[in-house]
Design goal:
alpha/beta; seven-stranded parallel sheet; 7 helices; 46% helix; oxidoreductase; Sc_DH/Rdtase_CS; oxidoreductase activity, acting on the CH-OH group of donors, NAD or NADP as acceptor
């Protein structure tokens, strides 16, 4: 029996990387997916691919750092499908830098997207999930939310925060209302995320990580495993990483 089939699932960051791979994988397994990202053209391409392969997908260009846009995404989903079963908070950015270089603008971008974007998604779906008596919130963290490496400082801080948010949700919302709160923490994956890094002093760190990176599809399958659970089963915290990655 599949618990993915017929679920209505919102996926943020769905135009690329983990979000894109996860949305495609879930749609292939019978979910109706709602795609969100700031890249409207990218979302259209992903939605058309899913539809051409026989799946169900809609999309809405959404900046998850703007709470009004996240609530509008929720409204679109409810108007189309009548419910939300799962929220997957995939939107995020990883901008490694050394403390010496004080990349304050980049710190603020990561805090806004990785932390506030996650919180706004949670705030948008919680009232609905409480009313329906069940639901899933899956936050995509990082292995950097379990261990801090060189150049990881602020990025790791945002992912440690996501870990804390998820555990707090579990204690309050899972226990009281049956809303499953899960964290999936990937290690280094091959999505060209390194191209966004501007700090030349961390290039050596990035080169070492690129050597062991795994395909994003492995993360998508791990997230799907978490989705594919009955409402009384919680997969709380999963790390999926390259075998050769040293924490």
């Amino acid at each position: 029996m599949s618990y993915i089939t017929d679920k209505v699932i919102i996926v943020t960051g769905a135009s690329s990387g983990i979000g894109k791979a996860t949305a495609i994988h879930l749609a292939k397994n019978g979910a109706s997916v709602v795609l969100a990202s700031i890249d409207g053209d990218g979302l259209k391409i992903v939605a058309e691919r899913i539809q051409n392969e026989g799946g169900t997908a809609i999309y809405k260009k959404t900046d998850v750092t703007v709470k009004e846009e996240v609530h509008a995404l929720m409204d679109v989903t409810l108007n189309k499908f009548g419910r939300v079963d799962t929220l997957i908070n995939c939107a995020g950015m990883m901008l490694f830098s050394m403390w010496d270089n004080a990349k304050v603008d980049e710190w603020e971008k990561m805090i806004d997207l990785n932390l506030k974007g996650t919180l706004y998604g949670i705030a948008a779906v919680l009232p609905h999930m409480k009313e329906q008596g069940k639901g899933q919130i899956i936050n995509v963290g990082s292995i950097a939310g379990h261990a801090v490496g060189e150049g990881h400082g602020v990025y790791s801080s945002t992912k440690y925060a996501v870990k804390a948010i998820t555990e707090s949700l579990r204690k309050e919302m899972s226990v009281k209302y049956g809303i499953q709160a899960s964290l999936v923490s990937p290690g280094v994956i091959a999505t060209n995320w390194q191209d966004s890094v501007t700090d030349e002093d961390v290039k050596g760190v990035l080169d070492n990580l690129k050597e062991v990176a795994i395909d994003v599809e492995h993360v998508a399958r791990t997230i799907a495993f978490v989705v594919d659970q009955p409402s009384d089963v919680l997969i709380n915290d999963v790390i999926v990483s390259p075998t050769r990655q040293e924490w």
